[in-house]
């Protein structure tokens, strides 16, 4: 009897211990699938350029407000003085009061005799806010001041989400009535920047004319209500003003909507071989070229279906256009807006993916393919600019395309933080469940999920970093991937390496999920806000770094990655 009782107690204890161990294991759905990823540390594919370090927004005045300044600090800290910010409305007339898809700086007015009066106070505040936080301007030259516009009324729009997008295009979209005054305004602005910040600083900036001037036309509303020739003239006079103030300034463009097609071809032809409207010389300098690329999400069957194929096809076409000009073969390219869709300030069902992990997993999968496309075309991709910032004094998680809401980082920002941790050289990474580049270009990720990897090495820091994503176009629950991540050709003289595993998913690095669990409070309390801040940080799966064995240059780790999850595995050795 005594033996029986003792055995029963031990039996219960064993089952209790087993239950605890099982509870600590990752939950793997019955329909999960295995994925094998191989990292070859010896196969160097060249520099992994930090293309992620470009950002932008329609609304420049948010950069000087509390949440905008906090987000700028977060971005600048990722790569101090190498992060760039592009914004509309730096020359738009107005008192600096921000609104959706609007901003102003009041840089230009005139006295009663029509002589220019320049006022740099607001635009200085914007650039100061950037530079003080380790972010540099990607200075967009636009839009048209009211007193220079050929159609000054109506000037300021009153657009709100739900209104026709065409209502945005008012008097600021028109060519100048006096091109010499336009060029002089740009000259005075750049000269002032050199005086204020120093030549060496301003030489690092990007200067570019207007935004998406191929949307619109003569008597047709758009970002530029004028002809192609009028845009060439606008550009030539603007760039002449820049170079007159700073001959070594970095200038380019045209930041077209999409690849721009023949419109961009005509622009490049004009800049390379045409007669400059401002100087009478042949050509206009192009230190970099730029175009935009957007995806096309839809709302189908009660869920969002992303359009990654549309964005990557646009990039492919843009690269093809640039490559068709031999003079531009090595010219740096910036995809000046590179996003899942086209309107950051718009709201609605097809934009409902933005707060969560669909946006973050899309970002990981799409940015990796931008590198692949640049390699395919043998072009110099310098940046892919996320047109997503923050919207000040809006409701929590309001559904805008942004990196943070009310000072709380969204999951997408944590994927960008992951990119910021990657090394300087790309190494080979092969996954048996990645969707090929050609298949994504053809039809997106509509069948099997895309489970891929981007790997880097930093030899000076003895560190390998691997980003692994689990992406599908459909914002639906799906099976998890059980990842077998194997490293080969590590240094033969090491026997162990430290593993740090960062994660973005529905449970990690996800303040939006935390907010939902709170009951979606309209006004979180101080305690709740601190909890949201904590959950918005880039999370580590384990409490501290784990040591893993390295045997004759090989190592292996295994983990479960849920759909829409992104992992960053870092191996470091001594």
From TrEMBL:
The keyword Chloroplast does not apply. Pfam families: Glyco_hydro_39. Residues 36-537 form the Glycosyl hydrolases family 39 N-terminal catalytic domain. The keyword Ubl conjugation does not apply. Belongs to the glycosyl hydrolase 39 family. This is Xylan 1,4-beta-xylosidase. GO terms for molecular function: xylan 1,4-beta-xylosidase activity. One of its GO terms (biological process) is carbohydrate metabolic process. It comes from Aporhodopirellula rubra. PANTHER family: ALPHA-L-IDURONIDASE (PTHR12631). SUPFAM superfamilies: (Trans)glycosidases (SSF51445), Glycosyl hydrolase domain (SSF51011). The active site is at 212 (proton donor). InterPro entries: GH (IPR017853), GH39_cat (IPR049166), Glyco_hydro_39 (IPR000514), Glycosyl_Hydrolase_39 (IPR051923).
């Amino acid at each position: 009897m005594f033996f029986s009782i003792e055995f029963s107690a031990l039996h219960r204890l064993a089952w209790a211990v087993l239950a605890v161990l099982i509870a600590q294991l990752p939950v793997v759905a019955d329909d999960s699938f295995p994925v094998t990823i191989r990292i070859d540390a010896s196969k160097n594919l060249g520099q992994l350029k930090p293309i992620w370090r470009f950002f932008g927004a329609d609304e420049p005045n948010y950069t000087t407000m509390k949440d905008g300044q906090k987000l700028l600090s977060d971005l600048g800290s990722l790569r101090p003085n190498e992060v760039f910010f592009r914004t509309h409305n730096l020359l738009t007339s107005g008192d600096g009061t921000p609104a959706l898809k609007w901003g102003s700086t009041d840089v230009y007015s005139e006295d009663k005799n029509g002589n220019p009066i320049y006022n740099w106070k607001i635009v200085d505040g914007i650039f100061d806010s950037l530079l003080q936080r380790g972010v540099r301007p990607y200075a967009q030259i636009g839009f048209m001041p009211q007193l220079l516009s050929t159609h000054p009324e109506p000037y300021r729009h009153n657009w709100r989400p739900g209104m026709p997008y065409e209502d945005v295009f008012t008097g600021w979209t028109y060519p100048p009535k006096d091109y010499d005054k336009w060029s002089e305004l740009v000259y005075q602005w750049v000269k002032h920047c050199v005086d204020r910040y120093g030549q060496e600083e301003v030489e690092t900036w990007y200067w570019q004319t207007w935004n998406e001037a191929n949307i619109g036309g003569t008597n047709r509303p758009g970002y530029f209500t004028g002809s192609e020739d009028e845009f060439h003239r606008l550009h030539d006079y603007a760039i002449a003003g820049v170079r007159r103030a700073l001959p070594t300034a970095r200038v380019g463009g045209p930041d077209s909507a999409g690849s721009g097609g023949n419109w961009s071809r005509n622009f490049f032809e004009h800049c390379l071989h045409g007669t400059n409207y401002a100087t009478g010389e042949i050509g206009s300098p192009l230190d970099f070229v730029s175009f935009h690329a957007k995806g096309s999400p839809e709302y189908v069957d009660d869920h969002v279906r992303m359009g990654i194929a549309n964005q990557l096809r646009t990039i492919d076409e843009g690269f093809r256009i640039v490559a068709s000009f031999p003079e531009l073969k090595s010219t740096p390219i910036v995809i000046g807006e590179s996003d899942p869709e086209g309107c950051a300030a718009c709201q609605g069902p097809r934009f409902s993916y933005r707060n969560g992990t669909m946006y973050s997993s899309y970002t990981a999968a799409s940015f990796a393919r931008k590198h692949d496309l640049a390699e395919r075309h043998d072009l110099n991709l310098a940046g892919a600019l996320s047109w997503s910032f923050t919207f000040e004094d809006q409701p929590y998680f309001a559904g805008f395309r942004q990196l943070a809401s009310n000072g709380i980082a969204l999951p997408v920002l944590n994927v960008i933080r992951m990119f910021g941790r990657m090394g300087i050289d790309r190494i080979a990474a092969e996954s048996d469940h990645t969707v090929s580049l050609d298949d994504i270009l053809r039809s997106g990720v509509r069948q099997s999920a895309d489970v891929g990897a981007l790997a880097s090495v930093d030899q000076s820091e003895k560190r390998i970093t691997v980003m692994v994503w689990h992406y599908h176009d459909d914002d639906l629950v799906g099976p998890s991937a059980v990842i077998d991540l194997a490293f080969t050709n590590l240094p033969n003289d090491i026997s162990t390496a430290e593993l740090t595993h960062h994660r973005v998913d529905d449970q990690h690095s996800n303040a939006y999920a935390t907010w939902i669990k709170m009951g979606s409070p309209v006004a979180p309390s101080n305690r709740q806000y601190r909890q949201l801040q904590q959950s918005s940080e880039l999370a580590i799966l384990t409490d501290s770094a784990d040591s893993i064995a390295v045997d004759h240059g090989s190592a292996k780790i295994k983990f479960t990655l849920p759909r829409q999850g992104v992992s960053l595995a870092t191996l470091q050795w001594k």
